[in-house]
Structure formats: C-alpha cells, structure tokens
Amino acid sequence: MKRRTVLVATSLALTASVAGVIAWKAAPTKRTSVPKASIPDDASLLQTAHYRVHSTATPAQTQEIAAAAESLHAAYLSLFADHVAPSTTPLILVLYRDADEFARNNRSRPWAEAYYLRPACYAYYGSGSANPYHWMLHEAVHQLNTEVAGWRLPAWANEGVAGYLGASWLENGVLTPGRSDPDTYPIWWLSRMKLTGSLDADVAAVRFIPLRELVEGRGPGIDQHVNLYYLHYWSLSHFLFHHRDGTYASAYKQLLALGASTPDFERLIGPLEEIEKAWYAYLLDAIAKMQDYEAEHGIER
Fold this sequence. Notes:
- By secondary structure, this protein is α/β, with parallel strands linked by helices.
- It has a single domain (about 10-20, about 30-295), classed as 3-Layer(aba) Sandwich (Glutaredoxin), CATH 3.40.30.160.
- About 45% of the residues lie in helices and about 15% in strands.
- The protein is built from ten helices and eight strands.
- It has helices at about 60-80, 100-105, 135-150, 155-165, 200-205, 210-215, 225-245, 250-260, 260-270, 270-295; strands spanning about 10, 45, 50-55, 90-95, 115, 120-125, 170, 175-180.
- It has a six-stranded mixed beta sheet. A two-stranded antiparallel ribbon has the order 7-8.
- Helix 1 packs across helix 3 (about 135-150) and helix 7 (about 225-245) packs across helix 10.
- Residues about 1-30 have low confidence and may be disordered.
C-alpha cells in the first residue's frame, strides 16, 4: 500500500430527505432523490450480518474486508452502547481490486484513496506490508456516525473518532479501540512530528494547532497541513478516551452524542486551555513511544 502524504480518507457525507411535501388542495407529492451507490458492473456481492459488500477484489480479499468491517461494527456499538442503538438497515461498502481501479472511479478529491459518499464507503484492497483494510474502516466509521448513530459532528470529532477506530489493532477478528496499529494512517506519521516540548514555540511554528482553533475550525489551512490535522484529530480523540485511565471517556461519548460543540466541550470536559496542556503532554509521550517502537523494530519512515 502506498503511503501518501495526504489523508486518503475523505468524508463527503451527503444528506437527502425522502419526506414528501404536500401542498394545499392535495397537490402531487414531491420527493428528493435518494442517493445511490456507484457500483461497478462487474462487482460481486457479499452479504454479511450488517453489510452489503460490492467488490471487484478477489473473494478472499473481499471476505477479509467484510470481516474487518463487522469487527469494527461490533466495537463501535460496544464503545457507544449508551448512546447508539443498533440498526437493521444493511450498510454499503464498495471495494475495488486495486488503487488504479479506485482512481478511475474516484468521485472524491483526486488524491483520495478512500471516501464515504452516502450511502456507501469506497476503498480498495491495499497491498504491501501496511494494514490492507484501515482505509475502509476509517470511512466505515464516518458511515456509522452518520447512518447508525445519526450524528452530525464537526471535523475534529468526526475525523477523530474515525482515525481512532480506523487505526485500532485488529487481531483474531477482534478490533481493540485505542490499541493503535503502527501500519495505519495517521499513526505512521506520528514519529515525524517535530514537537519541541514548548507548546508556545510549536504553535508559532505551526507544529501544533491550538485546541480552540482545532475544535472551532479556525486553524491553518488544512490543504497545506493535512497530516498535521489528522494526527491532531486522532491524538485528541485518543487522549479523551484514554488519558488517566479514561477520565474523560464517558464525558467525551456524551459530548459526541450532543454534537461536540465548543460550549458542551467546556461544560462536560473542561476549559480548553487547561485540556490543551494535558493533551500536548500526552501527544509528546505518544511520539516518544512511537519513536522507541520504530527504533526497536528497525523501522525507517
């Protein structure tokens, strides 16, 4: 799998209403069109408990992606059991055999390697040493947020939860939220964050995005700092789920269910400036651990 310098997981969730609008004196009902998935003509169909997987990849690859998606589905509902009810509507995944076929059918940004465009997630089966399904899982989290949980979240929370779960370790059919897989995006960029230990200096050098700017969408342009943003999104969610044995985890889940506004953040979790300091220290520690892991395993990025 090619490790590009931009996030390949782009969420372009589109909303559509199917409610009829009835005018006075029984005028004809008007309905908006229901979005449809773009499915390759030669795609096979694999149905699982919660997914319909349309695929041009091999049967074994398709089964692997489907199993990973089911593992994610179970982990998601377990994580948010108090806030999200299970859905009986099948979710749609479209899997391409390789990056070239995906690129020819890409309806997202030119650099995208996966995306969610309601009602389907689109990705390809990754080859090489990297995790082959993490792109699809990232987008499948956006799908779960939108179509199962019914949440409408700001980017920091939507991408944060997707990065957190999409980059989690999957082993023996079980996805473990928060145990990060080093062969997933954005984790493989973590060791190259150049934080100095001085929060103010790192903010000035655009190495660290202040928490208030991140949650309010007022930071530096994302097109010039894609990896930086997604490392921030991932690390903030990981911090909120796991800092001090999950001190903020319950409040964070409640925050997500309420829409993750800035006032609710400060009411449920704490003042942004105070949380920022603890999160920055948490991120420094995560970088050091990743650097140690790569040195121990002879990994060069």
